[in-house]
Structure to design on (168 residues):
């Protein structure tokens, strides 16, 4: 059943997300080649381990990336935790029932921080993880252009409405 979902729903949205990721001229496929050379194998290994335990997590990572990109661009804003003075997208009603994978992204980001402290953005970790999840589920691969900067705010915190679409 999961394999029948892949071509009809995941692949078109994976391709859509590729176009979201190439909207800035500063992005590059070799952005971390020198500053964090083990980034890609580390992320791939951790995503592979998670997919081996629960295959659906690959699709969940893609959905998480889509929700991040949909509202304010691919900036990691969906990963921001709420604070006493900030309410983010992560806990928005539109996201809290349909988006998951936050814990895996947190684990991957922690591992990446051990390798390359304060170098790799959360937005890039999410973009790479999303691609790797799709590939590990038998979907297509694509080059992920890197160099995104993390957002420090979200649409929810600025009072704008967050929309949600059920795609997966």
């Amino acid at each position: 059943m999961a394999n029948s979902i892949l071509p009809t729903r995941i692949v078109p949205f994976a391709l859509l997300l590729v176009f979201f990721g190439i909207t800035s001229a500063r992005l590059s496929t070799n952005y971390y080649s020198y500053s964090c050379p083990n980034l890609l194998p580390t992320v791939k290994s951790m995503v592979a381990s998670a997919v081996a335990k629960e295959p659906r997590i690959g699709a969940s990572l893609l959905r998480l990336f889509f929700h991040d990109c949909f509202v304010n661009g691919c900036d990691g804003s969906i990963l921001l935790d709420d604070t006493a003075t900030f309410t983010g997208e992560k806990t928005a009603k539109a996201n809290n029932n349909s988006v998951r994978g936050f814990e895996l992204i947190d684990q991957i980001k922690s591992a990446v921080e051990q390798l390359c402290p304060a170098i790799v953005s959360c937005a890039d970790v999410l973009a790479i993880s999303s691609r790797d999840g799709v590939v590990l589920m038998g979907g297509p691969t694509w080059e992920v252009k890197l160099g995104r900067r993390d957002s420090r705010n979200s649409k929810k915190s600025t009072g704008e409405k967050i929309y949600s679409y059920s795609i997966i």
In short: The chain has a mean pLDDT of 80.
